Amino acid sequence: MPEIFINGQPVQAADDETVLQAALRNGYFIPYFCWHKSLSIHGNCRICGVQPEGKNWVEIACNMPVAEGMRVLTDSDLVREHRKATMQFITLNHPVDCGICDKAGECTLQDYHFEYNGGRSISIDAKVRSTKHVELSKRIVLDNERCILCTRCVRFTREISKSNALGVKQRGDESLVRASEDGAFDRDAYSDNVIDICPVGALLSRSFLHQARVWYLKPTPSVCPGCARGCTVNLWHRKPEWKLRALDPKQNVSIARVTPLENPAVNGLWICNKGRDLAPIFERARAEQPMLKGQPTDLPGAIAAARGLIAGAKQPVALVSSWGSNEELAAFAGAFRDRFATFVKADHLPADGEPLQDDLLIRADKNPNTAGARALFGDAPAAFAEGTDLVLVWGEGCNFAGLPRGAKVIFLNAYLQPENGHADAFIPISIQTERSGHYTNFEGTVSAFAACFPKPPSVADAEQLFAELAPPAGRRA
Ligand code: SF4
Ligand code: SF4
Ligand code: FES
Description:
The chain is 21% helix and 19% strand. The chain is an alpha/beta fold.
């Protein structure tokens, strides 16, 4: 453990650390653009310069290995002058169009300009223009005038997603980030991570483009239900205090964007593109009308009818949801373990063209809580014994044609589906964004999700519902 001195203070560094890493870990901030803790070191932006004590020059801290007794200054006059000059250089041809840039509010360039430069450009030359609104892929647009050529995006495709889809062509102020022409960036299932790691507003999500200013949004921690990895994510949505009144009120209760929530135990810093597209998954047309054989009823009426069907059944079978939370599954087990023959159902199967599985994150099981459900109910495939007279189906993915003929059906579902109207009792239920809970991923790691929107009043919360449907002995107070 080498001891180094930062601004005269002793700091214990790890053997393989750089000065930048040792400084950040010990609470000394050194600015950086091109350095990223999960990527190789390129050392091209030069903003991380520190002054070796007693010398009259600066060196970049991101590529400076620590050595016993090393002494550096991170806030000397020379370092401040270097940062100011570097910011002048980096913004030389930058359009400074923060007012229309989606990155505004979370842009490193804005923050550093404010912190380390603060002045107008001293250049007397016209800015060099570059290409704008470049379609880098079907999901991402690039503004080359905003790009500071840090190459984080390029290194991401080489070192993390391994698509090798991005590169820099030309030289000097004609340098351009470009996608390879074989469509590899379109096929990169992790491409949208470059939007997060771009330190400026050069890489922009087409689905989020000009949709919201980030300071009107807030993140709710959640779990991606797109596969058994269960990546932790932030679901961004409108802050209640900035509720829209004149525009479509649905925008107040919809997901504006999804970003990774760093989690070393599950997904590290990354998520796949499916995780970015949770809005179209969660925001499908909802089922909100309780029904008895297609006839509308109210929620208490549907619950009473379902309770009666359960009480009268001789051989009931339940197909439980692999999208149910641990809390809901435990509530089902507590209420019905001895009453139903229970099997775990795959609510979602891989969609056409969807990546099945890879070495980074994506899993073939497209359900978030198969592990949690199987821990309670086993992994036997669904079987209907002779005489099965009731099937309780919870969630999507049921092959209704395969249910025993003549058996009554109780169906708990959140989305519009033709079978809703065929069930003897149909009870609409809430979705993940309307409740809190936990999922257990395929490796046994448990992650929490929180509610961000209220549930519609006519839909049931499954955890509470199971307690209400339980036979009197299993009913909770
Ligand atoms: S597009 Fe962004 S991440 Fe890529 S090189 Fe330019 S500034 Fe860096
Ligand atoms: S890897 Fe799976 S859990 Fe993670 S973001 Fe992609 S679909 Fe969601
Ligand atoms: S962060 Fe060190 S040179 Fe870019």
